[in-house]
Amino acid sequence: MSIDEKKASKWEDFRVRTLEIAARRNNSDFEKYIGSLTERAWKHVLSEGKLNPDLAEETMWKFFCEDQKNR
């Protein structure tokens, strides 16, 4: 596996795990919200190096809730 393939696999695995955690909330709007993030956004989240999938989901949930309040 090339370095690029490993990087791709890493962010895709991170995304899948985060989406699995998000699904536990049983909130279809949130699932659409988090599922609509671009590849660039996922790579940025992963590049921060501070977040694991649980923390990423929790952070995105806070963003989602804030966005809902401002609608």
Question: What can you tell me about this protein's structure?
Answer:
With 71 residues, this protein is mainly α. 77% of the residues lie in helices and 0% in strands. The chain is built from four helices and no strands. The chain has helices spanning 3-23, 28-35, 39-47, 53-69. α1 packs across α3 (39-47) and α1 (3-23) packs across α4. The mean pLDDT is 87.
Element-level helix/strand string:
HHHH
According to DSSP, the number of beta strands is: 0
Helix segment tally: 4
Radius of gyration: 13 Å
User: Tell me about the biggest sheet?
Assistant: none
Helix content: over 70%
Q: Segments where pLDDT lies below 50 for 5+ residues?
A: none
- Structural classification: mainly alpha
Quote the distance from N terminus to C terminus.
Answer: 45 Å
**Overall body shape:** globular
Q: Overall pLDDT, averaged?
A: 87
In what range is the share of β-strand residues? under 5%
What is the topology?
Blueprint: H1 3-23, H2 28-35, H3 39-47, H4 53-69
Helix pairs in contact: 1-3, 1-4
Describe this structure in a few short sentences.
Helix content is 77%, strand content 0%. By secondary structure, it is mainly alpha-helical.
What are the key terms here?
71 residues; mainly alpha; 4 helices
